[in-house]
């Protein structure tokens, strides 16, 4: 209840008035600070990070045009004075080792004649427009066998053909092959034979191209706990060992992309793929291509 005025308390009323003035001044200062912070955010906005989601045809397309892969390397990846972005590094591993080591940052022009072959993860290159000068032949759900049978690629005349039928129509200088967990349903021997068949097909079609076998990417720890999980990361690691051996046997190159995607426990971080534990969003595609741009081999190797 509001107190009634009393002339006997004039000095106290003056003191309250002084307190009110103090608080008014304090609130005014706070308001100025808030407005100043707002102006600062307009001048130096925080980059918007779109939510991570599995790759589908309805994946947010609005982010793709604003998130092109930059041609300049990240500051920490700078190759230093005297380096060249135009000449691919001699970054293959030791003699007999097919794994490509880290080298200098490659210009985006390195991918002008690149052909990416794979499943839904590779298809995300188109959805997120990560490297729009490369060619992508990929389809959701394909495995090592259905690369030959699923009519997934639409030709200029409107007809559809399998991925490894469409691949004959291109003349790539580099081929990046990545198959995911859909190809892990078979036993190790069958997996090796099926993968070798795909490699042989691509080498036969394009004998002068550099062929990179990319490792199978890890899944999240949450995915490993699912009753219907196709594979855990221990199995993925074993099958990646087969891929590296196969690359050495076939005389092609091996890219251990999985190392860029693993957390301290050897899993894809749950935050990278909160929905299905396999697919990831645009920021992780940038990580993938940053890896590719520092792990390239020259055509003479």
Helix content range: 25-40%
Widest sheet: strand order?
A: 2-1-5-6-7
- In DSSP terms, counting alpha (H) and pi (I) runs of 4 or more, how many helices? 8
Q: Return the string of H and E elements.
A: HEHEEEHEHEHHEHH
The low-pLDDT segments are 1-15, 30-69, 76-93
Main sheet makeup: 5 strands, parallel
Beta fraction: 5-15%
What structural class do the secondary elements suggest? alpha/beta
Description:
It is a single chain. The chain is α/β, with parallel strands linked by helices. The chain has helices at 10-43, 120-128, 163-166, 188-205, 221-224, 233-250, 258-261, 282-292; strands at 114-118, 135-138, 153-154, 160-161, 174-178, 210-214, 253-255. The chain has a five-stranded parallel sheet with strand order 2-1-5-6-7, with helices on both faces. It is globular, with a radius of gyration of 28 Å. It starts with 9 loop residues before the first helix and ends in a 9-residue tail after the last helix. Residues 1-15, 30-69 and 76-93 have low confidence and may be disordered.
